[in-house]
Amino acid sequence: MYYRAEGKAVCGDVIPFYEDGRFYLFYLKDFRDIPQHGEGCPWYLITTGNLVDFEEHGEVLCRGSADDQDLYVFTGSCFKYKNEYFIFYTGHNPHKRSAGLPEEKIMLAKSRDLIHWQKEDGFALEAPEWLEMHDFRDPFVYYDDEKKRFCMLAAARMKCSAPASGKGITAILTSDDLYHWEMEKKPFYAPYAYFTHECPDLFRMGDWWYLIFSEFTDKVATTYRMSRSADGPWITPKLNTFDGHAFYAAKTASDGERRFLFGWNCIRNQEKDFEPWQWGGTIVPHELVQAEDGTLYVKCPREIRESCRIPVPTEDGQAVNLVSVIEGGYRIGGNGGMGLKMLGRMPENCRIEMDITTSDEVGDFGILLRADEHADQYYAVKFEPRLNRLAFDQVPRKELTVHIQADTERYCPMEPGRKHTLLIMVEGSVLECYVDDKIAMSARMFDWPEGNLAIYARNTQIDFTEILVFTDQKE
Fold first, then answer.
1. Whole-number Å distance between alpha carbons of 128 and 331
2. What pLDDT does 161 receive?
3. Which of 75, 291, 373, 463 is most buried per CB count within 10 Å?
């Protein structure tokens, strides 16, 4: 369902490219084992025609030595021109800083078949004098039909008197031949709002242009801006992120009809709950949806949703307090307190679907995952309508002072009296939630690999209907 490298290794930033019915997903592979695999980060490649079955092609861009600029082969983009493919990538080497040399330069590799790549040893772009030398990375190349030139976006930082957290820009370079590049003096996008704009991506959908980048200054999220022109001005939508903290560094690719956003659901330190988030994890795609006003939403790709298609009957388990049977499901809770209904064992990998109708904007409700027999221990997909919040929670919490894992949350308004849809995809520790095919939230569940499914409502009345569970595993 979702792809992760074997063993200790994790998938870092994904560089997606589509051709002839297949997605080529280049990714940064972090072995997480320097004694065994050495320092540095190469690019690996997987391909897929359906987003759930993957063919592994192994290493395609090798890392350099400790003396080379590209000890770490970091993020870039894949671009086709005539009969050749060009990968512009970041050559990163932290050891260069002590010698007064740039940690990062933009480098180039070429191919005829997308599988076998040759680095262009004489090609290297570094930050000009007016930009900080050590932050110059993540090139994204496209052709501008109006300018009749190739353009390259890059993550960079200005030398200026602004706060350090606001010096990040999306820089732009132009070229006539893909080999000789000229830096534009005016940044492509400079909001003075973030430390840096990682992994820039630009595309057009209908009458709108979209600029995507990832930032770790405010929310730690992939965000976007929209404009009627590729030259801006850029509008910041109200809901300008696609997911929460556990989904990052996402870039897009289209098959000509649908566009997908490929990011990674990050792991935690030692793959334990409550530990700090770590760089890299499991590749997760969301499908982009354009609303009538041009804003973007994400939903679960149908291929992933349908990968779990074996029905799993729910059980008529224990009911606690305010629970009643209604047509198609259960009415739970009320102003007088909490109600809870156990629904039986959860498969390890599964799709959970249900409709939810709220009665007011008071209290909270949600779905318990991998709960123990009496719901003293569980993960929760938790809705708080009064705060317009969807969040991931866990009980018991590590510390009594920790109310909720608030770094895994989403803005999610819910209209009383209206039926809302919830889709949950679970594979191992990976949790992906989708509300109304608009709101996505990624999370992780490491410590408890099994348990029961339950629904609850506290100080509010909720109708849970059309509850369905499917798995990809035959018993």
1. 63
2. 87
3. 75
- Examine the fold and report which residue of 305, 333, 361 is the final residue of a domain before the chain moves on: 305
Q: What is the mean pLDDT of residues 291-320?
A: 96
Q: Which DSSP category does 189 fall into?
A: B
Q: Is residue 3 part of a domain?
A: no
Token couple for 219: 């929310």
Supply the pTM of this predicted model.
0.96
The one-letter amino acid code at 57 reads: H
CA-based torsion, 409, 412, 413, 416: positive or negative: negative
CB 407 within 8 A of CB 220: yes
- 290 CB-near residues (< 8 Å, 6+ apart): 205, 206, 208, 296
pLDDT of residue 252: 98
pLDDT at position 406: 58
Buried b (16+ CB within 10 A) or exposed e, 50-77: ebbebeebeebbebbeeebbbbbbbbbb
Q: What residues does 281 pair with on adjacent strands?
A: 11, 266
Q: What is the mean pLDDT of residues 183-208?
A: 96
Residue 31 token pair: 């072995």
Verify that 379 and 401 share a domain, yes or no.
Answer: yes
Could you tell me the pLDDT band of residue 398, with boundaries at 50, 70 and 90? confident
Structure tokens, 378: 């569980």
Same domain for 115 and 72 = yes
Rounded to an integer, what distance in angstroms lies between the CA atom of residue 70 and that of residue 321? 61
**Bond prior to 163 in cis (omega within 30° of 0):** no
151: domain CATH number?
A: 2.115.10.20
- Pairing outcome for strands 409-411 and 22-30: unpaired
Q: What are phi and psi of 148, to 5 degrees?
A: 55, 40
Q: Using CB atoms within 10 A of its CB, is residue 313 exposed (0-12), middle (13-18) or buried (19+)?
A: exposed
Cα–Cα distance, 316 to 182 (Å, whole number): 67
Please give the C-alpha separations between residue 427 and each of 242, 286, 348, 450, in angstroms, as whole numbers.
20, 15, 7, 11
Burial class (CB within 10 angstroms; exposed 0-12, middle 13-18, buried 19+) of 124: middle
Return all residues near 38 (Cβ < 8 A) that are at least 6 apart. Answer: 31
CB atoms within 10 A of CB 388: 13
Alpha-carbon span 89 to 152, nearest angstrom: 11
Structurally, how many domains does the chain consist of?
2
* pLDDT score of 226 more than 70: yes
Q: Indicate whether 225 belongs to any domain.
A: yes
